[in-house]
Amino acid sequence: MDKKEIIRLDNIRRYFKVGSEEVHALRGVSFTIYDGEFVTIMGTSGSGKSTLLNLLGCLDTPTKGEYYLDGVSVRTMGKNDRAKLRNRKIGFVFQNYNLLPKTTALENVELPLLYNSKVSAKERVRRATEALEQVGLHDRMYHKSNQMSGGQQQRVAIARALVNDPVLILADEATGNLDTRTSYSILVLFQKLHKLGRTIIFVTHNPELSQFSSRNIVLRDGKIVSDEINPSIRSAQEVYDSLPAEDD
Amino acid sequence: MNLTNLFKIAFKALSNNKMRCFLTMLGIIIGVASVITMLAIGQGSKESIRAQISEMGSNMIMIMPGADMRGGVRQSAEDMQTLKTADYESIRSKCDHVVGVSPNVSSAGQYVNGNNNYPSSINGVTSDYLDIRRLNVSEGNVFTERDVQSAAKVCVIGKTIVDELFPNGDSPIGKVIRFDKLPLTVIGVLEEKGYNSMGQDQDDIVLAPYTTVMKRVLAIDYIQGIVCSATSEAYTDKAIDEITEVLRSNHKLKATDDDDFTIHSQQELSNMLSSTTDMMTTLLACIAGISLLVGGIGIMNIMYVSVTERTREIGLRMSIGARGIDILSQFLIESVIISITGGIIGIIFGCTAAFVVKGILNWPIAIQVYSVVLSFLVCTLTGVFFGWYPAKKASNLDPIEALRYE
Predict the structure, then answer these.
(1) Of B259, B282, B307, which residue constitutes the final position of a domain?
(2) Could you report the predicted ipTM of this complex, rounded to two decimals?
(3) pTM surpassing 0.90?
């Protein structure tokens, strides 16, 4: 494959000390993710997917093994360097949105850029506006986070993940708190971003979602049990259109 | 991460919680305002005492007969008869740094004018006494050198005496009042001076030639004291040395003998009073300082709660690229903003309160620039000091744990 490597995991192990016992959350995980892939990482709770997510998001470092993000080795990085890396290369989307309360959509989206001193105030507003337009919220820029529905809040969160133009978008159960219809509308958005060339990793325990991504990795007990390319990606838009509109 | 962005973030976080922010500030506001007001009142009373003393004559020197101590036994000044009229005359003629000299003899008694009577005292002095004590005659005249020589039965009276003896508002000039059995013609009325800082009525005063009091009232040949004034406050010590020398030679004291007189200057009184008010000011400042400390602890308290409450927010900020130092700075800036804003409001409040005290209670106040600067600095330091611990706690949070915090 001649595509650019975004992520390379090389026999990643992560152990935790819980009391006197050592818990092996990841027992040798290796895979490579290339530019433009939409990967779902699936697993039941206890499979190690949260640990993997934290490692991929540079919030944590592996006990053993190498992790390269965009060609940079993360394992030996200090806290501050990892913070900078997150700021420049990763966009997070959380299950519970994690927006700042009483703060407008625009300000929420601007937030990552506030921690990047190279971006001027003018540039910041321009990029945040652009990101909000991409997720279809340009008419709600000045709405406060607590005045918006769950779906809208998640869109703001996605815009926030896009604003720093990351090499990787990491979504953690991004549809977990939403009803079916809204979930699909968010999936539609992720598929749209995928088409635009974004690399997305979607961590979930819901097997249904694997139909909509280009590749599925399944974890069990800290190991990869399957890693398959999805030859026929299902369109979330079609599912969304087939759902009955809310009429109650 | 630049400072402007940090300030923006901190301001935003504070404005999301205006009420709590204000309540935290309140502690600082009260602390600073009380420091400023207390010091203004303390300093004001000190200055007003100074002013009153200098009105009484800051260069005044009082000579009393008898030493404070003789052979370990304290002597009562009343029994001393060491000062004579001759001493007064030689001080007047020989001391260069003394401008006004007056003997002082006094006796208590009852004043009577017709139906009205009033208990007071009579002061036997010369006309110099008025200059020494900064007294002025508002009506009539002062007795002359001739009155003194002839022990004339004349007097100059203060406003209180006028009010008591002439209640229907008649002019007392030329009237004859009686001091016990001695009739005295009123030749002058003194300007009103009010009460001094020790609560004494400075208008309850009757001045007569000292010869009159010595011969006609007390029948004594010694004087109870001498009052004089140095050429200026700075020459007080020099004048005291001159007087000591003159009196020792007059009294034929050997070099080994103790002085048989005591000299007090107004400076001593002034120093004593200002040390008293200094102590009061320190006390007030301590109380105020404690309230500032309590205000600071209030900040720490709130910031600490705020860190716990905003754990997820901190986690989010870290996950999108905030470093520990960014989080630390944010919380530190928040607490400094609270304390500085509180400090500024406190300064305004304190100054206003000081003026209100001046306006309503008529207390003398003097706002101290140093107290304003000091309390402002203390405020900022309080913010940094008490904000540091919660901020440090916030910056040390693990982003994974923080994001999961419920």
Answers:
(1) B259
(2) 0.91
(3) no
